[in-house]
Design a protein that fits this description.
Layout (H helix, E strand, L loop, with lengths): L1 H14 L16 H12 L1 H4 L10 H6 L1 H8 L19 H12 L4
Bound molecules: heme C (HEC).
Heme C binds next to helix 3 and helix 5.
Amino acid sequence: MKKLFLVLGFLAIGCSGGGSGATCPTNSTLTYDNFGRQFFATYCDRCHASGTRPALSTLALIRANSTAIDSESAAGPSAVNTAMPQGSTTVSEAARRQLGEWLACGAP
Ligand code: HEC
């Protein structure tokens, strides 16, 4: 019975348009230096450099907002989230998958 509730819980999360469900493969090579910094500089900092709406301009801020970022912008087995960057479709799904993976790895 416990298991059933667990499954239902996950389904409920999936339905709320939430996380990408991305996981961290053991051979992941993505880091802030080779991926994150550039991704946020290119797609997000224009609107999220500082102050309002969460600021996402440092690695610490990105980690602190990791769950929300995943739900807005990352792709994985559960969802391809495209709410951010707002008003733009320039981020490829491949890049969104990388974002999901990098966040799932703890944004190293
Ligand atoms: C054109 C401006 C713009 C760009 C570019 C943009 N955002 Fe946003 N973002 C906003 C605004 C405005 C809000 C607050 C209103 C809202 O939630 O829609 C917001 C809110 C958010 C939130 C908070 C949502 C919540 O539920 O609290 C997150 C997380 C976020 N953006 C992530 C990102 C990421 C990641 C990128 C880059 C891939 C990005 N945004 C690019 C304008 C932008």
